[in-house]
């Protein structure tokens, strides 16, 4: 059956700017493992997440922020077991630091990215907490 099969879409290093949404691409909903490293994606859309995804890697893209709706959906989606977001253009701010910590609570293997300034978002989150 399709549910037991593993479908990987490897589109690394392809100058992709947008992740397809399942509504527009029904076959996209069959993918379990999505490899998007080395592209030009700068935003993440909740509509690109679907129930079959278990692994998403998006290193070396142009991500700089995470929308609350995206993080909320990732945390709700039971099938996603790993999300890799290292080496992007992350903007250092307390909101992003909080979102990364939230993601880290779901994924045991989650490595919190560093900002473009080189600061680790976990360290930033600690300083944000003390400011409140």
UniProtKB/TrEMBL annotation:
- SUPFAM superfamilies referenced in this protein's UniProt entry, alphabetically: L domain-like
| InterPro entries registered for this protein in UniProt | LRR_dom_sf
Please identify the protein, giving its name as recorded. Protein toll
Organism per entry: Culex pipiens (House mosquito)
């Amino acid at each position: 059956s399709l549910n037991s099969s593993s479908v990987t879409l490897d589109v690394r290093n392809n100058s992709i700017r947008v992740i397809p949404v399942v509504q527009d691409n029904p076959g996209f909903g069959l993918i379990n493992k999505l490899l998007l490293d080395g592209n030009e994606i700068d935003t993440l859309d909740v509509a690109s997440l679907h129930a079959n995804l278990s692994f998403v890697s998006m290193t070396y893209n142009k991500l700089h922020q995470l929308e609350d709706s995206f993080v909320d959906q990732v945390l709700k989606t039971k099938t996603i077991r790993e999300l890799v977001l290292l080496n992007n253009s992350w903007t250092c701010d307390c909101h992003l630091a909080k979102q990364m910590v939230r993601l880290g609570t779901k994924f045991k293997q989650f490595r919190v990215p560093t900002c473009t300034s080189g600061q680790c978002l976990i360290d930033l989150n600690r300083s944000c907490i003390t400011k409140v």
